[in-house]
Specification:
With about 160 residues, this protein is an alpha+beta fold. The chain contains four helices and seven strands; from the N terminus they run E-H-H-E-E-E-H-E-H-E-E.
Length: about 160
């Protein structure tokens, strides 16, 4: 398995993984699928803040971060997304992706990373807990998808150990 920064030609593979999650799971509350063009823009603008996992030439997952909220006061706080192809889960790709993403974030001066995890995704909560994220809030019924309301679990990890 190789972990590396995403490049524009990864966009179709990223879209395939992400859109499957969007269309078929409650892991994310969004219903808007990702486009190759939009992902190319994200890859080009985020640099090392967009990492992919590749196994035998196949894209098996990605992790990226973006602004937590607008405004200069939030510049050192990022929210991340991580998704794996079903066959890659439980094989260490998630941990490897997050390690690379955290390294890139530290290099950029990010103080903390946030994860917004669906309350219907206990595996996602467990994964983030196992890699050092702490649950700081549970927002009841803030997401709506598949005809039902869902909770959002907010988790945070401080990257700047001098806090």
């Amino acid at each position: 398995m190789i972990i590396r920064p995403a490049i524009p030609s990864d966009a179709p593979g990223i879209a395939a993984i992400w859109n499957d999650v969007i269309l078929n799971t409650s892991v994310t509350f969004t219903t808007e699928t990702k486009t190759t063009e939009g992902l190319i823009e994200d890859i080009e603008s985020r640099g090392h803040g967009f990492q992919v996992a590749e196994d035998q030439g196949q894209l098996i997952g990605f992790a990226t971060y973006s602004a937590f909220r607008g405004g200069p006061g939030y510049a050192h706080t990022k929210e991340h997304s991580i998704q794996l192809a079903p066959e890659a889960r439980g094989q260490g790709a998630g941990r490897a992706l997050m390690s690379a993403l955290e390294h890139a974030a530290r290099q950029e001066g990010v103080h903390s990373l946030w994860a917004g995890v669906s309350g219907e995704n206990p595996d996602g909560v467990a994964f983030h807990s196992a890699i050092g994220f702490e649950q700081v809030a549970r927002l009841p019924q803030v997401g709506f998808k598949f005809g039902r309301w869902m909770d959002l679990v907010l988790m945070q990890k401080f990257l700047d150990l001098s806090r």
